[in-house]
Amino acid sequence: MEDRSLDEFLDDGSDDSGSPGESEPSEAADSEESEPEASGESESNAQANEESVPELPDDPEPATSSWTPEGAICEGCGESVDRRWDDGGRQVCRSCKEW
């Protein structure tokens, strides 16, 4: 099997089939011919979708770390670091965190 360029698969707008009138119908034409779903079916699908969505807890777990792109001071050693972890109410670097 030989390697091929992805450019070979791009549609350059030219029609290789011959005349422009011989093109296949688009998907939009197909969608106009299809019948809409019955309203009862769409309502039951909506109920099924609502039931499959997990409920979020009222009190999410607190974050255990924070990231500051410009850096923030570690409350343990005073060094400027990007990521700090919660350690008993203090925001500390990896070295100062009691694991």
Fold and architecture overview:
It is built from two helices and three strands. The chain has helices at 27-33, 39-52, and strands spanning 65-73, 80-87, 90-92. A hairpin with a 2-residue loop joins strand 2 and strand 3 (90-92). The chain starts with 26 loop residues before the first helix and ends in a 7-residue tail after the last strand. The model has no long low-confidence stretch (mean pLDDT 75).
Report the sheet-strand fraction.
15-25%
The biggest sheet amounts to: 3 strands, antiparallel
Strand order of the largest sheet: 1-2-3
- Low-pLDDT sequence parts: none
State the distance separating the first and last CA atoms: 54 Å
Number of helices: 2
How much helix is in the residues?
10-25%
Number of strands: 3
Structural class: alpha+beta
Mass-distribution shape = flat
